[in-house]
Design a protein that fits this description.
Elements: H1 33-44, H2 48-66, H3 71-86, H4 90-108, H5 113-128, H6 132-149, H7 155-177
Helix pairs in contact: 1-2, 2-3, 3-4, 4-5, 5-6, 6-7
């Protein structure tokens, strides 16, 4: 007797259906978290080149589908910059941070928390490049924005003020060494 092929269960109704917001089928939506999770897992495991590759691909897809100024695209740009920064590719990371900052300042305003986050990350990469004076100028703007937005007692404000103190200490050490 010939055996029947095994029947596959029918997928749930939502499987493979176009998304109401983007029209993409399940798994093809540029906001899909799988790429983010895979990149994050690789990053956490210190496989930075592989994480960079995934996040660059994710950025490219989001940019082509959602546009360069979409918040999800900017989030991807920040991830690419972060993984470049941790690899010491500071000159490559800086333009990603600057671009995200420019768009966020224009679209969200200078005191929005996402704008301030971009500003702070830019300050970090500039400090790593040794330009403590510019890092101080940028981080001072971050502190002022946080004070106005979330107040002096918020943990983000406190940590940012501590980072500003580190920057100022480095500036003072540099002046004493000259």
């Amino acid at each position: 007797m010939a055996s029947k092929p095994l029947a596959h269960p029918k997928p749930p109704a939502a499987y493979g259906q176009p998304s109401a917001t983007t029209g993409f089928r399940s798994g093809r939506d540029p906001r899909d978290v799988r790429g983010k999770r895979a990149g994050r897992q690789l990053y956490d495991q210190r496989h930075y080149e592989a994480a960079e590759s995934i996040w660059r691909l994710n950025l490219s897809i989001r940019k082509s589908i959602l546009g360069a100024e979409h918040p999800d695209t900017l989030e991807s740009a920040m991830k690419v910059a972060a993984v470049l920064q941790i690899q010491g590719k500071l000159s490559e990371a800086e333009p990603f941070y600057r671009c995200a900052l420019a768009v966020r300042e224009r679209t969200l305003g200078p005191e929005h928390l996402d704008t301030l986050e971009s500003m702070s990350f830019l300050s970090g990469v500039i400090a790593m490049k040794g330009d403590w004076a510019e890092a101080e100028r940028i981080e001072e703007r971050v502190v002022q924005g946080l004070l106005a937005t979330i107040g002096p007692d918020h943990p983000h404000t406190i940590v940012t003020k501590e980072w500003l103190a580190v920057i100022r200490r480095k500036l003072a050490e540099g002046e004493q060494g000259q």
